[in-house]
Amino acid sequence: MKKSFSIIVLILLASISGCEKKEPLKTVTETTGKATPEDMAKKEVIALMDTFHNALKNKKGDDFKNLLDSNGLYCGTDPTEIYNRDTYAENMAEALNDPTLGTIAYTVDTREIRIDGSGTTATIMEQYKIDLFSPEIPWRLVSHAVKKDGTWIIDFLSFTLVPTNAQQEKMNKVILAK
């Protein structure tokens, strides 16, 4: 009987402590009122990537090129598409200026940004679907940006298509059937 009573008390205590309202964790900025270098860098990187996507959507090749580092590495979705800035920007401008190309509309659904401790480099991962090119298979853009002379610039990017595992299986069957 004493054992049963002890178990009931433990269950009761566990349920009471589990019902406590837990406050969400606060960021450094929320608790101190001061933005850290990482907080500031993250905002700047978000603005950089938003500008990048707007240049693509609005088909502005020059705006696009100005966001890229002259010594950077830039990769398209095809395994052969590995470029320096000038060649990449030239190919993109040509593609964007194609009059048969429709509207490039998409919304970045997922964006993860990792800033280094000094707030001067960032790794960015974004995912979205572009109906014009692949309405069912998301694109993933992995980028790296650095802050040079007070300005953020992209020194690496790689576009990939990321089918689900089920889509990948179907794609392999179609390819192998040929």
Task: Please sum up the structure shown.
Residues 45-154 form the SnoaL-like domain. This protein is α+β, with helices and mostly antiparallel strands.
Structure explained in plain terms:
The structure is a single chain. By secondary structure, the chain is α+β, with helices and mostly antiparallel strands. It has 6 helices and 6 strands, in the order ααααββαββββα. It has helices at residues 2-18, 28-32, 37-57, 61-65, 85-96, 165-177; strands spanning 68-75, 82-83, 110-115, 121-128, 139-148, 151-161. A 6-stranded mixed β-sheet has the order 2-1-6-5-4-3. A hairpin with a 2-residue loop joins strand 5 (139-148) and strand 6. The longest helix has 21 residues, at 37-57. Residues 45-154 form the SnoaL-like domain. This is Nuclear transport factor 2 family protein. InterPro entries: NTF2-like_dom_sf, SnoaL-like.
Low-confidence stretches at least 5 residues in length (pLDDT < 50)? 1-22
Strand content: 25-35%
Helix vs. strand class: alpha+beta
Number of helical stretches of at least 4 residues: 6
What share of the residues lie within helices?
40-55%
Mean pLDDT: 84
Overall strand count: 6
Q: What is the CA-CA span between the terminal residues?
A: 73 Å
How would a textbook summarize the main sheet? 6 strands, mixed
- Give the C-alpha Rg: 24 Å
Order of the strands making up the biggest sheet: 2-1-6-5-4-3
Shape: globular
What series of H and E elements makes up the topology?
HHHHEEHEEEEH
Quaternary form = single chain
Task: Supply database-style keywords.
178 residues; 6 strands; six-stranded mixed β-sheet; SnoaL-like; 6 helices; alpha+beta; NTF2-like_dom_sf; Nuclear transport factor 2 family protein
